[in-house]
Amino acid sequence: MPHVLLQVIRFSSEARPGTLEGPFVILRFPDQQDPDMVYVEANSDQYPDDVQRYEVVFDNLRAAAASAPETLTLIRNMVNDP
């Protein structure tokens, strides 16, 4: 799908995605009157005040992950050489 970007973080990476409360989603809404939110799966709470903190974490994870073309190569190699 053209609107999806897939990147993987290698186990050998120094990035530690589990250092926060668990999986999270940053929610952005088209109406600027609706504040951005962070949904943290581990406790089902929403955190409007922590959006910036989670954006930094997400940016760091993206930077530590393989690029989209590298990710595709890694997945192809795993499929072709299990």
Give a quick rundown of the structure.
By secondary structure, the protein is α+β, with helices and mostly antiparallel strands. The protein has two helices and three strands.
Task: Explain this structure.
The protein has 82 residues and is α+β, with helices and mostly antiparallel strands. It has one domain. It has 2 helices and 3 strands, in the order βββαα. It has helices at residues 51-64, 68-80, and strands spanning 24-27, 37-40, 45-46. Strands 1-2-3 form a 3-stranded antiparallel β-sheet, with helices on one face. The longest helix has 14 residues, at 51-64.
Structural class of the helix and strand makeup?
A: alpha+beta
Secondary-structure element order, as H and E? EEEHH
C-alpha-based Rg, rounded: 15 Å
- Low-pLDDT windows of residues: none
Strand order of the largest sheet: 1-2-3
Describe the largest sheet.
3 strands, antiparallel
The total beta strand count reads: 3
Strand content: 5-15%
Work out the oligomeric state of the chains in this entry: single chain
Tally of helical segments: 2
* Percentage of residues in helical conformation: 25-40%
Shape: elongated
Distance between the termini: 25 Å
Q: Could you report the average pLDDT, rounded to the nearest whole number?
A: 82
Organism: Streptomyces iconiensis
InterPro entries: DUF5753
Domain DUF5753: 2-76
Protein name: Scr1 family TA system antitoxin-like transcriptional regulator
Topology:
Elements: E1 24-27, E2 37-40, E3 45-46, H1 51-64, H2 68-80
Antiparallel strand pairs: 1-2, 2-3
